[in-house]
């Protein structure tokens, strides 16, 4: 008995359907974890309360470095969980990998500038620096994600710019508003519309 051969147009339609589905999944997946962002926001609000106004002390900087370490752990864990649930890979060439490659350079710049600000007695201006560079990281990484992510980056950048113009003693309020409030607001939006 001879096997029936699929017409070429049936195979082409199946291939196109597969490509469209893959592109839709890649476009809808965001490496930014929504619920993870909410948790990160909560830790930042606690850190702002503990740290108080910027005072050029090592204690103040270490509180925020501690919060950054906690936030990184939350983000990596939440990102891996989100990718696993959605079936999106985290390997080289994936949307998450491209996000990380674009996200990292502004964060490295922030790590370099932090001791520079501190040694020049400008630690009270670190909130503006951190918010601006973090916003840049999210906006550049977000170029490979859904539209809400670069919008979140722009909001952080705007808040960082305003923090530079505001009195230095308000720095912890700006950090609470950005790393706390913006993460919670955008985290809820991402969780609701882009799969947790």
Overview of the molecule:
With 196 residues, the protein is mainly alpha-helical. It has one domain. The protein is 77% helix and 0% strand. The chain has helices at 8-28, 34-51, 58-86, 95-119, 126-141, 148-165, 171-193. It is elongated. It starts with 7 loop residues before the first helix and ends with a helix. 36% of the residues are buried.
How is the main sheet built?
none
Strand content: under 5%
3D shape: elongated
Residue-averaged pLDDT: 86
Question: Helicity level, as a percent range?
Answer: over 70%
Poorly predicted spans: 22-28
Radius of gyration: 21 Å
- The overall strand count is 0
The end-to-end span amounts to 52 Å
Provide the domain count. 1
Structural class: mainly alpha
- Elements, N to C (H/E): HHHHHHH
Write a concise synopsis of the structure shown:
The chain has one domain (30-193). The chain has helices at residues 8-28, 34-51, 58-86, 95-119, 126-141, 148-165, 171-193.
What labels describe this entry?
0% strand; elongated; 196 residues; mainly alpha
Topology:
Elements: H1 8-28, H2 34-51, H3 58-86, H4 95-119, H5 126-141, H6 148-165, H7 171-193
């Amino acid at each position: 008995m001879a096997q029936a051969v699929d017409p070429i147009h049936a195979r082409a339609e199946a291939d196109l359907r597969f490509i469209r589905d893959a592109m839709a999944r890649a476009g809808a997946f965001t490496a930014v974890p929504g619920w993870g962002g909410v948790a990160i926001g909560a830790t930042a609000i606690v850190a702002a309360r503990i740290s108080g106004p910027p005072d050029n002390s090592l204690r103040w900087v270490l509180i925020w470095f501690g919060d950054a370490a906690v936030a990184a752990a939350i983000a990596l864990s939440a990102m891996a969980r989100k990718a696993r649930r959605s079936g999106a890979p985290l390997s080289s060439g994936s949307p998450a990998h491209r996000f990380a490659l674009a996200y990292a350079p502004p964060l490295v710049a922030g790590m370099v500038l932090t001791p520079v600000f501190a040694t020049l007695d400008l630690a009270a201006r670190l909130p503006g620096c951190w918010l601006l560079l973090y916003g840049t990281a999210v906006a550049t990484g977000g170029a490979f994600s859904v539209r809400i992510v670069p919008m979140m980056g722009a909001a952080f950048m705007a808040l960082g710019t305003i923090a530079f113009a505001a009195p230095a003693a308000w720095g912890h309020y700006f950090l609470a508003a950005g790393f706390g409030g913006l993460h919670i607001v955008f985290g809820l939006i991402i969780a609701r519309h882009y799969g947790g």
